[in-house]
Automatic annotation (TrEMBL):
InterPro entries assigned: YaaA
GO CC entries: cytosol
Family: Belongs to the UPF0246 family.
A Pfam family per the record: H2O2_YaaD
NCBIfam families given in the database record: PRK02101.1-1, PRK02101.1-3
GO BP terms, alphabetized: response to hydroperoxide
HAMAP family: UPF0246
Listed name of the protein: UPF0246 protein EO244_03920
Amino acid sequence: MLILISPAKSLDFETKSTSQNFTESVFLKESQALIKQLRKLSPDEIADFMDISPKLAQLNFERFLSWQLPFDMNNAKQAILAFKGDVYTGIDAESLSEEELQTAQENLRILSGLYGVLKPLDLIQAYRLEMGKKLQTNKGNNLYEFWGDKITNEINKTLQEKEDRYLINLASNEYFKSVNKKKIKAEIITPIFKDFKNGQYKVISFFAKKARGLMTRFIIQNQLTDPEHLKAFNSEGYIFNPNLSKNNELVFTREQ
């Protein structure tokens, strides 16, 4: 099984990496082209474009200016250890063993507006560029048009190399839209996490994001290869709900 997750806005480049192993992103040439475009924006334009505060805009303006190749362990960090936020709280990559990180490296991919597709140990430098933002490039009016089928093709290449028959979609809608589902050469399984609130089960973003991370960790640590085994997931009160599940959507629910 190949797992897909989203990146995070929160980053940690201060804490020392728990692993010295690293790899290089396959799309650094494309990342460099995007950085070149982003450097044309002023801090005020970045604030408008990203809908963020002037302080955050200034930070990202400086990030784009300082972004440079080649990456190494002195100026960059492995993606799975650099990203923070709810999904990555659930994964808790710092506590994974070197062997488990290697399992993640083989079975997990992170979608990214700037880097396209990342392996967990791919080095990244600090950035913020959400996939849904409308950045004008020579490929089109937004990042979906910029990446085209490159992300899909790279995922298919990995699926073929690993002889995987299943793609586990634990990414947000914004990021999974960068994947052309019709062209994916695998069965797509989407776990959904719902909490019981006000008399009904609903997706609560904060909890659902962390649960996606917990599910990712569950798959990695147990080296799962069969989607049927996902139904055994029962972390933090979530259990498989067969009544709400249908086709390739596996719904996990918990009571508040």
